[in-house]
Amino acid sequence: MARRRSAFVPRIIFQTAFVGVIPACVASCAGAVTDDGVSPQDGQSGDVGFGGAAGSRDAGLPPRDAADARDVRQEFCCAVADSGFVPVPGDVADAGFVPRADADASSDRRDSSSVADVGFERRDQFRWRTRGSFHSTASPIAPSAGASASGTPKASVLMAKLTPLQIRRVLTATPLARQHERNLDRPRRRPRIPWQSFRRSDYHDDALSLAFEAQRALATGEYGAVDTFARLASSLALSGAPFDIIAEASRIPSDEIRHADYCCRMAALCGSREVVLTLTGARTSSQLPSDPEHLDRTLVHVSAIGETLAAALLAACRDRATDPVARALFTSIVGDEVHHARLGWYYCAWRGPQWTYRERKRLADSVGELLLGVEQRFWTGRDAPPRARKGARALGVLDSVSQRAVIRHIMEDEIVPALDALGLGASHAWRARRRGGS
Fold first, then answer.
1. Are the beta carbons of 297 and 99 closer than 8 angstroms?
2. Which CATH number fits domain 11-121+172-431: 2.40.50, 3.40.50, 1.20.1260, 1.20.1740?
3. DSSP for residue 397
4. For 54-73, what is each residue's pLDDT tens digit?
5. Do the bridges between strand 133-136 and strand 122-124 make them parallel or antiparallel, or are there none, so unpaired?
6. Residue 89: C-alpha distances to residues 80, 92, 93, 222, 411 (Å)
7. Quick one: which of 371, 381, 401, 226 has its CA closest to 300?
8. Which helix (H) or strand (E) holds 124?
């Protein structure tokens, strides 16, 4: 598909040239017909996945990998449900994007000469490479008193089993490294929000009610993201990732709590009442991504895809908002969200050359399952009655038609081409997606 100039995905992603794979979920869509009239099965081989029949969830995954996959699925679904743009459809909790696994771990290994100077590489199940020296960062963990009934080790057990990790100051070969150097000397500048200039009397009550709900939902999502990105930053540090990747990840939690504060304040102005955020039980988990593939899935799903979607939606809110407080708020948040999204893409630019074929295939399977449901999840926006449409638009509230257009454009212009450039076969899954409104 044709791609316009990228606004959120860094150009370095489109300079990669990986051999693409076809996500297993595409072949499992029996009888589905894509935009170009071709069935997803046409032209594909029978080998569509690893460790189980096409379309099965958690097929062939050992208990720990299956639990990791469910954790990542839960993280993205919680973020989608609380993003402020999705009125929590009933199937969000059951949405599946599960990676496949292959029992033959030995075929996952590669010749180390191709990645002698980039980050970390899986040498066996628990060895990564860091700038020419090998470190055993963890040892096999058998189910014990510190493990759950399913055999999944708790975070405390994983941390207790870590052996010393030698860290060197390594930066990625991406523009993020230059940004990191600049941020060491001066912080990012943010626009001032003129809170005192907001006047509720300018807007219809229905418009204010929609804006209140949108801001409260957005605040809930931003507050929950504090925990998600704090755990990601911790996992990246414990993994020995490059300094610029860790530094950018560590800044995000402070951005997210500031966004939550902004949105709570804006919601209070619109609703003229106290704002109470309700977090689901899923937010109480403190598990850390426990291995490189789990970390890959989390960064791709939550940062690269999730934050790019959020940045595009918030940019659309900013562009339509004419209220000075709402516009300044969205401008400030979008300025941060772009960096949050690019963290995921820069991580992929660094990690992509290190993926084996099987690692890339499993990641493509999980991404493909995610993309199948994106359009449905964002199909319904916040539609104001005719008498309140002008006010809702001025406050940056997205209606259904506008929200659908934003999702389609960001997916087809940036996210899908970027994932294809990484060899993840996203265009196959996007053509076979579940249609909104169906």
1. yes
2. 1.20.1260
3. P
4. 333 343 344 445 555 555 55
5. unpaired
6. 10, 6, 9, 19, 20
7. 371
8. strand 122-124
Q: Put residue 17 in one of left, alpha, beta given phi > 0 → left and psi -120 to 50 → alpha.
A: beta
Q: Beta-carbon neighbour count of residue 368 at 10 Å?
A: 29
> Would you place residue 269 in the very low, low, confident or very high pLDDT band (cuts 50, 70, 90)?
very high
Element (H, E) at 390: helix 389-394
Cβ–Cβ < 8 Å for 341, 311: yes
Beta-ladder partners of 135: 128
Lookup: tokens for 226: 């504090």
Q: What is the CA radius of gyration of the chain?
A: 22
What predicted TM-score, i.e. pTM, was given to this entire model?
0.69
CB-based contact 367:128 (threshold 8 Å): no
Degrees to nearest 5, angle at CA 187 with 184 and 189: 155
Give strand pairing partners of 281: none
Angle of CA points 428, 408, 310, to nearest 5°: 110
